[in-house]
Amino acid sequence: MQSKGDKALSPILGLGSFRWCSCLGSFFPDTPKVRFRSTRAGASSRKNYSDCISGKKPAVKGMLFELVKKLGLMDNVDQKIIEGDYLVHQNLDEALKQYELAAFSRQKGERLLRKFFSSSLRRAESLDNLAKVAKDTGRNWDALTHFLDAIRIREACFSPAWEMATSYANAGLVILELPGHEYPRVAVGVLARAVAFCSVSLKSKVKMNGSETTSYLDLAAMHNNLGRALLRNHKMEEALKHFRLALAATKVHPSQHIQKKDGSYPEKARATVAKCYTNIANVLADLSGSAHQSEALKYYSFALHIHEITDHSSLETAKSHEDVALILHEIGDLNAAEQHFQFAINIRQFRLENEIRGDAPIEDKVAFINSLNNIALVLRDKGQLSDALDCLNRALEKTEEGGIICTQLEVAWILGTIGRLHDEIYLE
Fold first, then answer.
1. Distances from the Cα of 374 to the Cαs of 255, 282, 377, 407, in angstroms?
2. One pLDDT digit (tens) per residue for the chain, 428 residues
3. Contact yes or no for 178/149 (Cβ under 8 A)
4. Which of 125, 280, 369, 377 is 20 to 30 A from residue 404's alpha carbon, by CA?
5. How many other CB atoms sit within 10 Å of the CB of residue 215?
6. Which of 204, 164, 171 shows the shortest CA–CA distance to 189?
């Protein structure tokens, strides 16, 4: 018997069986061929077409199904999707090309049939809202079920490419968070489709209410999501490629410094660019070789610059200081590493002390303890054993405040390091 999770994911576990237009088969079952006998009949049928999705008016369902078939839309789209699904884990670049070709073919049906589906698309929006509530409350399987239902409706209703991109991205990110080794692999295929739809939407330059529905920042976000999924699949080089494509989509050159008063880079753009820099640096930092470490330090520094001009006392700025400090510690620049760790500690301590009623998130408290641990290691390497011991004792005191906020293993590490420092001080 299938669990709720298996039932939710069964259409996409293989990706080959989850065609963009395969859901047309369920919404438009085979029915006798019906032709419009008069303009009035046709207008009446089109006006009431929204009933078709709920199973009413099968004659009109059959008519539109035949119309879609005659245009060859399903065959063209399905063929490209089959090719893309086959290639997605062998040649991701070629798979993305096939997905984009399918999305372009699909636009013909969008222009022709979308006016019939307004009520169904409103149902898809409601499902998206239900999914977001479920996700926010930790019910990821329920969220995924709603997101997939919304995708099926949008596929059948020839929803615009930018809506499809958002739907696939929402589903892919939920899949990425599911426990189990097989789900990151599924997420790659789903998020690749989000990239393809977003790219097609951007190339089409579709506008709504006078403004374009998709921006270069949306495409950057889609590439970042795909890069994350590839990382979870341990495909470092491919992940790095898509993080670089995300940065290229933002139209910011790595050597270009964004200024706070630069009106061409609003806060959302700065945040996206900073995330691109950090993602690239994270991959480079995990790759071996001094050249990779130097390049990682460069990108971490770019991200830190953006965070500082946005808000020099934010937790994102503290995290960027730590990223820079960890690389500096690794390459042996201990004084600079200590300075950046101290900046991070000062920011985190300030934020913790100014939280209302001291109700800081546990994650922030743990991050503060980790910062103290990291600077203690730098101070130890500099030979300042007493100062390092003071930092570790502060970290140990924090673990005992407000209940258990660290694992036993983390506390054991702190105690063990304190013991080793006492031995080193004694031996001196």
1. 29, 18, 5, 17
2. 445 555 555 444 433 333 433 333 332 233 233 232 333 333 333 333 334 434 444 444 455 555 555 455 555 666 777 777 778 888 888 888 888 888 877 766 665 555 556 667 778 888 888 888 888 888 889 999 989 988 888 887 778 888 889 999 999 999 998 888 888 889 999 999 999 999 988 887 654 444 455 688 889 999 999 999 999 999 999 999 999 999 998 887 765 656 555 545 667 778 888 899 999 999 998 887 778 888 999 999 989 988 888 788 888 899 999 999 999 998 889 999 999 999 999 998 888 877 655 566 778 888 888 899 999 999 999 989 889 899 888 888 888 775 556 677 778 888 888 888 887 776 66
3. no
4. 377
5. 19
6. 171
Give the separation between CA 424 and CA 416, rounded to whole angstroms.
Answer: 13
